[in-house]
Amino acid sequence: MSPSPNIFDRQLLRARQARAHKLGPATFLLDRTASELGERLSAVLRQFNVAVDLGTPTDAVRQVLAASGKVGTIVAANVHPADQSFLRVAADEEALPFANASLDLVVSALVLQFVNDLPGTLIQIRRALKPDGLLLAALVGGESLSELRDAIATAEVEIEGGVSPHVAPFADVRELGTLLQRAGFALPVIDSERLVVRYDSVFALVRDLRQMGATNILNERRRKPLNRATVRRMAEIYRERFADEDGRLRASFEIVWLSGWAPHEGQQKPLKPGSAGRRLSDALNTTEISAGEKPERSR
């Protein structure tokens, strides 16, 4: 059995999140994600008796669940949940304390991208869900902060002659679909959206990342700050490459949505190959061509 990956310094993550809370957290991305989660949940035509909000650092998602009218008991699961408005349980996303088949709904917003063993966490969630229970989560995707990655890497090569990791290697959409299936979820759905936020300077972006608790927590991170020359060159490159006509800078965030159901015998099943009652060529009013036959070209 291969050991679990150890990409992120989870203790440092908690310290950064605590610092962000003291600074006054930047919650615009989380608030937007919570609103979108509410819209997605509204399309699900059923009620959920017990729901767990896994790891979300504010109560934005829990407020959406409470307002939806679809959820009975709402539990905030976090290492140090701060709000007093909901039931709370101390829990780490990598070691869930819930009994098998005890939950109807698990939601999570912008947290699971920092889990070292995401396949293991997904398996734990699926086991904790009752049959036909739902997972609905949003993660930061692999296309996020591509501009910042580019500017830092280029500046480091120019000034210091090498590159060190600064931005986390967030999960790819296709990888997440595979992980859901491997974890045993039925009817998995993966999609993503790209958001562009504009800033007056790259330093304003970094300040927001600090207030999100989302600065570098990689175990292989550089242990000393970038030198001043590298920082100045990074800011210049960012402005040269990613400024709009009005001078403001673009920063991309990819939000990946995943949902899946704990298997249940009453769920819809995909049709078996060859079981269709009508040919696709008939439905499209076209001529069917066998695999070894080449279509005629129009002249």
Shape: globular
Count helical runs: 9
* Main sheet overview: 7 strands, mixed
Helix content: 25-40%
Task: Please name the CATH topology.
Answer: Rossmann fold
**How many structural domains are formed by the residues?**
1
Q: In the CATH classification, which architecture applies?
A: 3-Layer(aba) Sandwich
Helix- and strand-based class?
alpha/beta
Structural features, described:
It is built from nine helices and seven strands; from the N terminus they run H-H-E-H-E-E-E-H-E-H-H-E-H-H-E-H. By secondary structure, it is of the alpha/beta class. The chain has a single domain, classed as Rossmann fold. A seven-stranded mixed beta sheet has the order 3-2-1-4-5-7-6, with helices on both faces. Helix 5 crosses helix 8.
Can you lay out the helices and strands and say which pair or pack?
Layout: H1 10-23, H2 28-42, E1 48-54, H3 60-68, E2 71-78, E3 87-90, E4 103-109, H4 118-128, E5 129-140, H5 146-160, H6 173-182, E6 186-199, H7 202-211, H8 228-242, E7 249-261, H9 280-284
Parallel strand pairs: 1-2, 1-4, 2-3, 4-5
Antiparallel strand pairs: 5-7, 6-7
